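Translate sequence into structure tokens.
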Amino acid sequence: MKIAIGQINSTIGDFEGNRNRILRFTLEALQEGAEIAIFPELSLCGYPPMDLLDHETFVEENLHALRSLQQQQPPGIAIVVGYVDRSRDPAGRSLRNVVALLRDGAIQFRQAKRLLPTYDVFDEARYFEPARESRVWPYGGERIGIAICEDIWWEAEPVAGRRYPVDPVRDLLDAGATMIIAPSASPFHVGKGAIRRKLVSSIGTNGGVPVVYVNAVGGNDSLVFDGASIVADGRGRILHQLPGFVEDLRVFEVPPADVPDPDASTPDVSAPDVVPPDHGAFLTEDTPRPLTAGDLMELEAALILGIRDYLEKTGFTTVHLGLSGGVDSALVAVLAVRAVGAGKVRAFLMPSRYSSEGSITDARQLALNLGIRADTLPIQPVYDAFAAALEQHFAGTEEGVTEENIQARVRGTLLMGWSNKFGSLTLTTGNKSELAVGYCTLYGDMAGALAVIGDLFKTEVYALCRYINRQGEIIPESIISKAPSAELRPNQTDQDSLPPYPVLDRILASYLISSHTFSQIVAEGNDPALVARVLELVGRSEYKRRQAPPVLKVSPRAFGTGRRMPIARRIYESLR
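Result follows.
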């Protein structure tokens, strides 16, 4: 069967735009001789719609878009499309996550999602009623089974806290399916591609049937969908994989069950993606999980797509940020330029009396390398005004963190003032290590609309900067090689009060991503007193993260909806 994969970038709530995109891709597929065009999960309304599903008009417009798609469907090709449907059951939730197969302007087949994820960033059981059965649909000499996203993940290795009572893929195979179609909206994180390839390959191998996995692409708030759709044959070989992080349409001849295509390429499903040959210089063992060149290539692409779509889908056209001469703001500036172009990025140098001449020079050189405008807004006069207003009340106290935070808040106020006046979007520059232990200032460096690198540990920031510089110095080497510092007091460095970042990041990764306990982290070779201190810092900083801007998710577990912790709790419960 000749099938088309429509790896599209849907916008949540843009029913007309999403429908038109599906029609355009379908017409192109028809011209290339495809018999069926397959689109991602909830592609008509966008994923995830979240509490928009509580609005009656959202559901109605989604159904209207489906009827309009039926009426405009070209003859000679079937369309597999995801949308929100009403449940016909008298009990349970009133909505379902559904995929319909349209042919000749009619809905010939429907399949609702059976497994509704409620872990990490997912909360589908809050909105949808699961289907009770999986059925197959005879078409073009095949018996097609549809398993929507999570429905195929039953076949993967178990995840802590997730157990399902049914196996939709097995039920489809038992019903005689000769092909599995998996429309999906699976968010990206580093290493996700290899996991998906292994999963799709195992379904093909164990079921003896081809598998067509169609994933969404694009950024929606903190989530980035990477596409990278996959076709596997009945022997588990990966026949085709679409590129990541871009919309694409590909037409393939899918071989019958258990008859592989002899001309297809056969990449190792566990192998990393193809990477540039000059990959040795920027790899590091310091990161919690050593990043390959393929990982870094995907990280860069994911963050660029996340920035670009955040702007396009929220109506912003320009961005700005504070450029400190440090590695974090340097990386965000590079990613912003690659996302929207140098002409739409504005930088501000905001030196204080503690800012070193080297940092100012480095920031200016970076701006020159990127071709962005960088203006200087000295904060000392504003800080002095704040200090004068508080002088009477602070009399007799020593200068410390309070005064340091006022400097950061002056900078945040200036950046947000620019945003309000000119409608530009403020990018924050804090990394995951800082957000974890609270080395960030509310209404200061946390002020903004999007936390671009908030899911990168500090060591990963360095690794990505080295990767960016692999073919020439974009980020000045002096920025990468200097000791990290907020420069909020004389001769300050981060390591004055924090352990070295390689040590800190390994502890944080074990706790935040792997959910290891205090004793497990200590057993990994870490100092007990240091582990206790780090975990206490993480717990006491939860209130800050609740007020942080959305963080672009690129790890298995990011701050935000994927990690929901109470603020009012005993901090030490995790140390036992």
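Note: Confidence is low (pLDDT under 50) at residues 270-280.
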